[in-house]
């Protein structure tokens, strides 16, 4: 295999269990198997192969892929999906709220991401911003407001560092960035997605408030987030892609 096309066509089913021609043109990305099971229950779909390293589910004309946690996996799924060239990809991620005004259960529709993870440097020089497909963020915003809910917008800081909540120096740096939230995938997805000519956006769910000791995520608090907010997170994602699909909306806002 010499070309990127040959490699990604071969590797996509090895990772996800789905061949390129069987992949939907409308894709939800997640980090959690719980999201796959809830997606299947909501859509009447099915999980393709739970033993794959990036298991996927099909339902209601949408494919959901659990690509795992962290920027290397985010870069990998972006590269693999380049062989499919879907019409729309929406990342349903969890994030830590960095502002006191953000509460657990809030939604964030990021307008950009700060590239603190390093993986995106393989795609663009450091000065190139990590931006989503605008029309995807617009469609997501529209669906949320139609439900009479509100959301935050702003930037998300993406890091490769998982355990940092004890580090006051790093937390002071985060305050200086003025970022609304922190996660481990969004900047990589935006950068690698744009590099691969993918139409990719994100809807983030605030799952903890890690800037204070009492706000750090625990098993108990994460279980409550799952029971109270994950269902709405997934249903907004499904409805967003269905609106784009049914109205024939184009999310390609730039010439690559």
Structure write-up:
There is one protein chain. By secondary structure, the chain is α/β, with parallel strands linked by helices. It has a single domain (4-247), classed as Nucleoside phosphorylase domain (Rossmann fold, 3-Layer(aba) Sandwich), CATH 3.40.50.1580. Helix content is 38%, strand content 22%. It is built from 7 helices and 9 strands, in the order H-E-H-E-E-E-H-E-E-H-E-H-E-H-E-H. The protein has helices at residues 4-16, 33-43, 71-81, 134-146, 168-177, 186-195, 219-247, and strands spanning 26-30, 46-47, 56-59, 62-66, 88-97, 107-116, 152-159, 181-183, 200-208. Strands 5-8-7-6-9 form a 5-stranded mixed β-barrel. Mean pLDDT is 94; it is low at 252-256.
Question: How would you sum up this structure in a few lines?
Answer:
The protein has a single domain, classed as Rossmann fold, CATH 3.40.50.
**Overall form:** globular
- SS field, number of helical segments: 7
> First CA to last CA: what distance?
26 Å
Can you name the CATH architecture?
3-Layer(aba) Sandwich
CA-based gyration radius: 17 Å
Compute the number of strand runs.
9
Query: Which consecutive residue ranges, at least 5 long each, have pLDDT under 50?
Result: 252-256
Q: Helices and strands: which structural class?
A: alpha/beta
